Amino acid sequence: MADKALIEKAKKIFENFLIKQGSRKTPERFSVIDELYSLPEDEHIDVEGLFLNMRNKGYTISRATIYNTLDLLVESGLAVKHQFKDKVALYEQALTYKHHDHHVCNQCRKIREFSDPKINQIKEMIGKEFQSAISSHSLVLYGDCQIKDCENLTVI
């Protein structure tokens, strides 16, 4: 179940962002927030998946509007964009975002999120070594599925 308060907070932030940008506040743009923030927090979705979800729910929205809106959501800090290996861009909500890294299975394409404090220790150590205040990082591990009868292998 989507957190309605979180969705309303996202919409208010987006509205203020659009006003500062001098951009139009269209119902279609806000419907993208509804759909993105209705997904589970750890779900990643591409434009086509979002388009199909929205069409199946009766929205009349173009792929171009979804692309443009997602770009604005990333720019406003309400969405995070990921580009995994050979996959299309995937998006996830950002208001609930806690830094995490990703594991992507080469066979079943399942994306798993993980967080390990040792990675932050390495980041701090490298920052000291290079005399750099590291502000962010991205780590994606790719592996081959070894799960017997993996349910995700049937969807590719």
From TrEMBL:
Gene Ontology annotations for the cellular component aspect, listed alphabetically: cytosol
InterPro entries, per database record: FUR, Fur_C, WH-like_DNA-bd_sf, WH_DNA-bd_sf
SUPFAM superfamilies referenced in this protein's UniProt entry, alphabetically: Winged helix' DNA-binding domain
Cofactor section: Zn(2+); Mn(2+); Fe(2+)
Similarity section: Belongs to the Fur family.
Assembly and oligomerization: Homodimer.
Name recorded for this polypeptide: Ferric uptake regulation protein
Native species: Algoriphagus faecimaris
